[in-house]
Amino acid sequence: MKHVLSAMVMNQPGVLAHISGMLASRAFNIESLAVGETEDAQFSRITFVVTGDDKVLDQVRKQLEKIVTVVKVADFQNEDIVERDLMLIKVSAGKGARTEVHELTEIFRGKIVDVDLAHLMIEISGQESKINAFIDMMRPFGIIEMVRTGRIALARHTSLSVDQALQPPPVYDEAVAAS
């Protein structure tokens, strides 16, 4: 099963190398990875997709939380999320193909960002299934080159904002719980 995790980390050199090294040393495979600044330039958000069961996910999360530069880790497994991938794809645009590629791009709500006599370059974003479907539609025209970002995601109803990530977890008070 695929799991989407989001880690709020300190925006410092070497953080990504430390995290990816930790995951690699424990044989966790990262399927997708995206890193970028948050609303506070002191912090970055790393969103990654790993494959495994709940036990594997729990191990990944616990290992990440032990890293000093990791502020907070969120598991989006049971969350209602909005997720997107971004892709640039260069497709052959030979005789007669240009119009059809343009029409398919519009159907998939993509955007032609570069035009050459021999090819079109298209930008498209959306869920992984949409990106994969578009790739399948472009194969007959001839895919010259393509590149994809890692998945990015935000939970609809909860937040992993910098302010919330920096707050300490609530302390359990036995006296309050007993009353």
Q: What would you say this structure looks like, in words?
A:
The protein has 179 residues and is of the alpha+beta class. It folds into 2 domains: 2-78, Alpha-Beta Plaits (2-Layer Sandwich), CATH 3.30.70; 83-151, ACT-like. Chain A, domain 2 (Alpha-Beta Plaits), CATH 3.30.70.1150. The protein is 31% helix and 37% strand. It has 6 helices and 9 strands. It has helices spanning 15-25, 54-65, 97-107, 128-138, 162-166, 174-178; strands spanning 2-10, 30-37, 43-51, 70-75, 81-92, 111-115, 119-126, 143-148, 152-155. The strands form 2 sheets. Strands 5, 6, 7, 8 and 9 form a 5-stranded antiparallel beta sheet that branches. The termini are far apart.
Distance between the termini: 42 Å
Task: Supply the CATH superfamily name of the largest domain.
Answer: ACT domain
How many individual domains? 2
The proportion of residues forming helix, as a percent range, comes to 25-40%
Number of helices: 6
Give me the Rg, rounded.
Answer: 21 Å
Strand content: 35-45%
**CATH topology name of the largest domain:** Alpha-Beta Plaits
Estimate the global geometry from the Cα principal axes.
elongated
Instruction: Specify the CATH architecture of the largest domain.
Output: 2-Layer Sandwich
List the secondary-structure elements in sequence, H or E: EHEEHEEHEEHEEHH
What is the number of beta strands? 9
Task: Name the average pLDDT.
Answer: 86
Q: State the name of the first-level CATH class of the largest domain.
A: Alpha Beta
Low-confidence stretches: none
Mind summarizing the main beta sheet? 5 strands, antiparallel
Which class do the helix and strand fractions yield? Answer: alpha+beta
